[in-house]
């Protein structure tokens, strides 16, 4: 019985919950790039938008931002430079 349950595909609600828990984890900053890749793929499989969660990690190398990155805000555009790959991500700040 248990095995059957494991093989069953997760529902959208279950996956949404899993994603939320993943990003809200106190130890999120210690997550590996592999784990982020996995959760991203999971979200994509159900077309679940990551929305603000996307701002918690580098979109190029998938490393979680730890707070030591260079951040610049200009004209309501926030630029964050990844400390791992040095690539910059930008997003518009909400009013
Ligand atoms: Zn990076």
Mean pLDDT: 92
Terminal residue distance: 51 Å
Question: What's the number of extended β-strand segments?
Answer: 3
Sheet with the most strands: spatial strand order: 1-2-3
- Rg for CA atoms: 16 Å
Structure ligands: zinc ion
The level of helicity is 25-40%
N to C succession of SSEs = HHHEEE
Query: What's the overall geometry?
Result: globular
Beta strand %: 15-25%
Count the helices. How many? 3
Number of domain modules: 1
State the major sheet: 3 strands, antiparallel
Class computed from helices, strands and strand pairing: alpha+beta
Low-confidence stretches: none
Structural commentary:
- With 95 residues, the protein is α+β, with helices and mostly antiparallel strands.
- It has one domain.
- It has helices at residues 2-7, 12-24, 33-45, and strands at residues 70-74, 77-81, 88-92.
- The chain is globular, with a radius of gyration of 16 Å.
List keywords for this structure.
alpha+beta; binds zinc ion; 95 residues; three-stranded antiparallel sheet; 3 strands; 34% helix
Which helices and strands appear, and what pairs or packs with what?
Layout: H1 2-7, H2 12-24, H3 33-45, E1 70-74, E2 77-81, E3 88-92
Antiparallel strand pairs: 1-2, 2-3
Bound molecules: zinc ion.
The site of zinc ion has 8 residues, from loops.
Summary, kept brief:
This protein is of the alpha+beta class and 95 residues long. Helices cover 34% and strands 16% of the residues. It has a 3-stranded antiparallel sheet, with no helix packed on it.
């Amino acid at each position: 019985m248990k095995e059957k349950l494991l093989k069953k595909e997760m529902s959208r609600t279950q996956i949404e919950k899993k994603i939320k828990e993943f990003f809200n984890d106190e130890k999120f900053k210690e997550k590996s790039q592999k784990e982020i890749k996995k959760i991203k793929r999971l979200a994509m499989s159900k077309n679940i938008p990551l929305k603000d969660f996307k701002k918690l990690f580098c979109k190029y190398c998938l490393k979680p931002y730890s707070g030591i990155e260079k951040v610049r805000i200009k004209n309501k555009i926030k630029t964050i430079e990844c400390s791992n790959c040095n690539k910059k991500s930008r997003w518009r700040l909400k009013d």
